[in-house]
């Protein structure tokens, strides 16, 4: 592991730690009331500052952020100004990384190289094709929800490339993350991640650190839990690298288990229990039929996209709707 450790400098780690600490907020559990008037104020300010992206936040999410105890004094609610600052930081980060435009890159990559936008914006086309390449290995996708209606993001570590395009991989994570958030059932604000950590490629510390920064800066209070199984030396190395950088509350959401223990947790968490467990965890559902490896995938359109991105969204919307209907019974 010495070669891997040497690939990220102490200065890079310290810089990442400082950046994460600046955005982190280990709020105590619990919630306070947020009035309709306060919600209107927050909404109006977001609409004014970010007119093209303010609807990204659902009312349920804004309320969940505003209602939390203040980290500096857990006996009171977060001040409205503090909530606005947190939400503004997320929106500024989204602008900085180009999050609102990620899906347009998927459409571009799915079209022909002769399309007017492709011809007029060759740099954008190159970025779009790199994003499609990162999606095509189907190492990251949404499928199903939990008993609480939280979307489930599946990571197939064995499909990850050994030498990734770090920028494109992070862009793919942002794209997929946003897609899942848009498809959340009404009232749901966070998601669950399940990692099939069998046969992962050698870790790329710069990618891992960038993913952690994206999670903290772009998706605060979004992760309910991350379950990873099985636990091997590479996964242990990744956690040893990331845990010291994580806010305490986030670190507590990472669960590393053996496959048998993971299967028990999934039985208790997934909407249909054992019937929703995929074959790679010893269950009946064959994810590979829906999200095959790239070599078994066909082009979705006239471009380079093979991953069924739009089908994934439709399936997740259907799962969310089914869960919402089940709550009415």
Provide key terms for this protein.
disordered N terminus; 329 residues; 5-stranded mixed sheet; globular; 15 helices; alpha/beta; two-stranded antiparallel sheet; 50% helix
Can you characterise this structure?
- The longest helix has 19 residues, at 309-327.
- By secondary structure, the protein is of the alpha/beta class.
- The protein has helices at 2-6, 10-23, 36-49, 59-66, 80-97, 102-109, 116-120, 122-136, 166-182, 205-218, 233-242, 248-251, 259-269, 287-290, 309-327; strands spanning 69-70, 73-77, 140-145, 151-156, 191-196, 223-229, 254-256.
- It is globular.
- Helix 3 (36-49) packs parallel to helix 5 (80-97), helix 6 crosses helix 8 and helix 8 crosses helix 9.
- Strand 3 and strand 4 (151-156) form a beta hairpin.
- The protein has a five-stranded mixed sheet with strand order 3-4-5-6-7.
- Helix content is 50%, strand content 11%.
- It is built from 15 helices and seven strands.
- It starts with a helix and ends with a helix.
How far from one another are the termini? 53 Å
Mean pLDDT: 90
Summed up, the helix count is: 15
Q: Quick one: biggest sheet?
A: 5 strands, mixed
Strand content: 5-15%
Got a strand count? 7
Residue share in helix? 40-55%
Order of helices and strands: HHHHEEHHHHEEHEHEHHEHHH
In spatial order, strands of the major sheet run 3-4-5-6-7
The shape is globular
Structural class: alpha/beta
Q: From the alpha-carbon coordinates, what is the Rg to the nearest angstrom?
A: 20 Å
- Spans of at least 5 consecutive residues whose pLDDT stays below 50 are 1-6
């Amino acid at each position: 592991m010495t070669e891997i450790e040497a690939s990220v400098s102490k200065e890079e780690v310290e810089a990442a730690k400082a950046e994460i600490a600046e955005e982190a907020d280990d709020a105590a559990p619990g919630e306070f009331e947020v009035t309709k008037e306060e919600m209107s104020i927050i909404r109006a300010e977001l609409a004014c500052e970010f007119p093209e992206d303010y609807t990204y936040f659902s009312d349920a999410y804004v309320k969940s952020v505003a209602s939390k105890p203040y980290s500096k004094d857990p006996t009171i609610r977060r001040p409205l100004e503090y909530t606005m600052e947190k939400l503004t930081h997320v929106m500024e980060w989204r602008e900085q990384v180009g999050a609102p435009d990620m899906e347009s890159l998927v459409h571009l990559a799915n079209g022909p190289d002769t399309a007017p936008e492709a011809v007029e914006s060759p740099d954008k086309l190159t970025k779009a094709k790199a994003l499609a390449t990162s999606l095509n290995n189907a190492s990251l996708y949404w499928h199903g929800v939990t008993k609480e209606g939280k979307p489930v993001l599946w990571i197939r570590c064995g499909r990850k490339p050994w030498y990734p395009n770090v920028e494109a991989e992070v862009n793919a994570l942002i794209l997929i993350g946003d897609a899942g958030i848009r498809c959340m059932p009404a009232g749901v604000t966070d998601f669950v991640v399940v990692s099939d950590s069998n046969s992962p490629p050698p870790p790329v510390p710069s990618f891992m650190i960038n993913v952690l920064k994206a999670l903290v800066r772009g998706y605060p209070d979004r992760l309910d839990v991350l379950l990873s199984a099985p636990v091997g030396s590479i996964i242990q190395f990744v956690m040893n690298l990331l845990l010291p950088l994580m806010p305490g509350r986030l670190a507590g959401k990472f669960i590393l288990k053996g496959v048998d223990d993971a299967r028990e947790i999934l039985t208790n968490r997934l909407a249909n229990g054992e019937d929703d467990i995929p074959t790679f965890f010893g269950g009946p559902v064959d994810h590979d039929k829906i999200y095959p490896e790239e070599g078994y995938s066909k082009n979705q359109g006239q471009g380079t996209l093979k991953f069924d991105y739009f089908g994934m969204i439709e399936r997740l919307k259907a799962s969310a709707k089914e869960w919402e209907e089940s709550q009415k019974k």
